[in-house]
Request: fold
Amino acid sequence: MTAALIIVDVQNDFCSGGRLAVPDAGAVIPVINDLKRGFRHVFLTQEWHPYGHISFASSHPGYEPFSRMTLPSGEQVLWPDLRVENTPGAEFHSALEIPWGSTVVRKGTRRDIDSYSAFLENDRKTPVGLDARTLGYDVTVVEAACRGIDIDGFLEAAWKQMADAGVRRA
Reply:
């Protein structure tokens, strides 16, 4: 079996100066650049929202960024307009070394559903492009290469969900 590295959403809008800068996001880039040297297969996810995406607060009159609403795919945090296709905020951070032959998987490309995963859209049914644990692959998340947005305990819930699915944390 061949190992693969999946690099998730290292985009300008999530980094310092971005529209939704994640605290200490830049610290993951050197870790990822070192990690990728040990993998022959590298995949990168890139949020690539169309203008007017359903996850944008601006698409719902009367709602502010970070408020919540129920959509057909479930509860949705409404975000500022970010990671919009063909904008600088959606581009990969310039310090991220992208190996030749890498595969980019764009997510959030459907206007009517958001996607936090490279595997399934938020409805947990619509494929995005990759799959891992549900197909029985061993999965390890390198914590030093991760940062996230923690709204109402979101990160703790995500770690628990991954652990419950058998994902290892390194």
The chain has two helices and seven strands.
